[in-house]
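Handoff note, outgoing to incoming analyst
You'll be picking up this chain. Sequence as last confirmed:
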Amino acid sequence: KRRTQTREWRAAVVTNYRLAGLTDNRWLKPLDVGAGVRWEDKASIGFLGAAPDADGIVREFDPNKPVWDHARDYFDLSAGYRLRFFRDKVSCRLQLNVNNVFESGRLQKLSVNPDGSPWAFRIIDPRQFILSATFSL
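Most recent structure output, in case you need it:
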C-alpha cells in the first residue's frame, strides 16, 4: 500500500532560449525566455473507516479504501535581459520569474476523517512574481 501523502511519480522539465540565436536586433539579442512544467501523481490523503464495531463506533481504517488527492500540474515562466553599464565595465542581468502561473491560491486537503470529510488543509499560495538583478564588475 502507498504511504499517505506520498506521491509515487513526479516529473519536471525546464527550458531556456536565448534570442541571440534567432535575431541580430540589438534590443532582442540580450533577451532570453524560459518555461518550466512540474507534474506530480495523485496521493493518498487517508483511508475510509472500516465497518463499525458492535457499539456503532468506527475504530479502524480500511486499508483497501484510500481517499485520493488529484494529480497536480505547475507551470513557471521566466524572462531575462543582459545590460552593460559604464563603458561595458559593469554587466547586469535582470530576470523576472513567474512561479505557478495558473494558480490563484486555495486550500488543499491533506487528510480526511474516516467518513471522507477533510480535517487538515494547507494553504497554496497564488502565482508569485520574482524580479532579481545581478551585477558583475
